[in-house]
Design a protein that fits this description.
The protein is mostly beta strands. It contains two helices and 20 strands. The chain has a 16-stranded antiparallel barrel with strand order 1-2-3-4-5-6-7-10-11-12-13-16-17-18-19-20. The radius of gyration is 21 Å and the shape is globular. The two termini are about 25 Å apart.
Length: about 400
């Protein structure tokens, strides 16, 4: 993304804006479009179908892994140079080895305007402008920050971006989280969503804690400095402050801060981030499980299921990637990477979590591929310990590994 010098954002006449929006505007990528060229047609409709081969070292019932559908999605984008927008809806159907369930949700959906200085204002379900952007990872499963709600997270509100000299600024206000959608009878309704948010627990598909927390009134600010004339190094700072509203009516605060950097030299790219978060909850004594301090954890949920997460912690991310030039037959765009992230829990005396993903991504026409080898401990999606982001089970205290091979057709 690039911007020119900062100027005041001028909105269009109300009638013009109304006519565009009522005429079916919704909808363009998940980030700010910046100075991209306006396409011949401002409306673009597309989508993707993705398939996975999965092997999990902790599933003896699937000794050779399994193949299944991952996602079917529909994308709608609009950009006429001034009025912009984006939406994406997803449907997931996971095989037995992945839980044997379905769910569907709005990934994002916003409309906005871009001013003459390339500053942008978005209104709707949009990405949280926090930490490394657009992602704090190279691999398909992202970093530990994603599973804590601090990477690739979408909430409902206002999002404004502008540039002042070498500094890119982003400021956002989200009165609500991303909302809950639909799923099979074996999913937790409040967790049928893409983004990991603090959600009410579920008695049948969760932990039965009785916690009913929701995220409200989240403010996010991000500043990123482009170092050097070629803008191939970025140093950034992000802060977040919001409310947690419980089902008893009590309100408490959550906060987070991150320093992050990304730089490239030739084919090499390095990403690094250090993130601190704190969820200062006010749970009742009985809102717990397994004898844990009820305020030592919160319930986060997405993809149909909630799980406990340490209320306070520090996340470290270090990624390195190498772009391989040339092609092999019809395949090109090879990227070799190693993504490492770790969570040091600062509440409850919980054991730490970590994951390391070594992989290769490449493409061929409209196809895009990932080949990931994942090594993890106390990580719900990469080990047997689904409660691992809080009270880690002593039965799963060693490393687990997972292999994920994905083929996706994007149209």
């Amino acid at each position: 993304m690039s911007h020119s010098t900062t100027a005041h954002l001028t909105l269009p006449p109300l009638r013009t804006l109304r006519n565009y929006l009522c005429g079916g505007l919704l909808l363009a990528g998940t980030g700010f479009a910046g100075a991209a060229d306006t396409p011949a047609s401002p409306l673009d409709i597309g989508g993707a179908v993705r398939f996975n081969y999965v092997y999990k070292s902790w599933q003896p019932e699937h000794p050779h892994g399994f193949v299944g559908l991952d996602t079917v999605r529909l994308d709608v984008k609009y950009d006429d140079g001034y009025l912009i927008g984006s939406a994406q809806y997803r449907y997931n159907r996971f095989p037995a080895g992945q839980g044997g369930y379905t769910n569907h949700f709005l990934h994002h959906g916003w409309a906005g305007v871009r001013s003459g200085d390339k500053s942008e204002l978005h209104v709707g379900l949009d990405k949280l402008p926090f930490g490394l952007l657009p992602f704090a990872s190279n691999n398909f499963f992202e970093s530990i920050a994603y599973y804590l709600g601090y990477e690739d997270t979408y909430n409902l509100g206002l999002n404004y971006a502008w540039r002042s000299g070498p500094v890119e600024w982003r400021l956002a206000y989200f009165p609500r989280d991303g909302g809950a959608y639909g799923g099979g009878g074996n999913t937790a309704r409040a967790s049928n969503r893409y983004s990991f948010n603090i959600v009410p627990d579920d008695d049948k598909q969760g932990y039965g804690t009785g916690q009913g927390d929701l995220e409200r009134d989240t403010l996010v600010a991000r500043a990123a400095w482009q170092v050097g004339g070629q803008a191939n190094t970025e140093l950034g700072l992000s802060i977040l402050s919001g409310a947690i509203r419980s089902n008893t009516g009590a309100r408490s605060r959550r906060s987070a801060a991150a320093i992050h950097a990304k730089g490239s030299h030739g084919p090499w790219t390095l990403m690094a981030e250090a993130l601190y978060y704190n969820n200062a909850t006010r749970h009742l004594p009985g809102e717990t499980f397994g004898g844990l301090d009820p305020n030592s954890f919160v319930m986060l949920g997405a993809f149909g299921y909630p799980y406990p997460v340490a209320a306070k912690g520090i996340v470290y991310v270090t990624n390195v990637s190498y772009d391989i030039a040339g092609s092999v037959g019809p395949f090109t765009g090879f990227k070799l990477y190693n993504d490492y992230s770790a969570l040091k829990k600062k509440s409850g005396g919980f054991k730490g979590s970590l994951q390391n993903v070594t992989g290769l991504s490449f493409s061929s026409g409209k196809w895009f591929f990932y080949a990931d080898f994942m090594l993890a401990k106390h990580q719900p999606y990469m080990s047997a310990d689904f409660g691992g982001f809080a009270a880690a089970s002593p039965l799963h205290d060693s490393f687990s590994h997972r292999i994920n091979l994905q083929a996706g057709y994007y149209f």
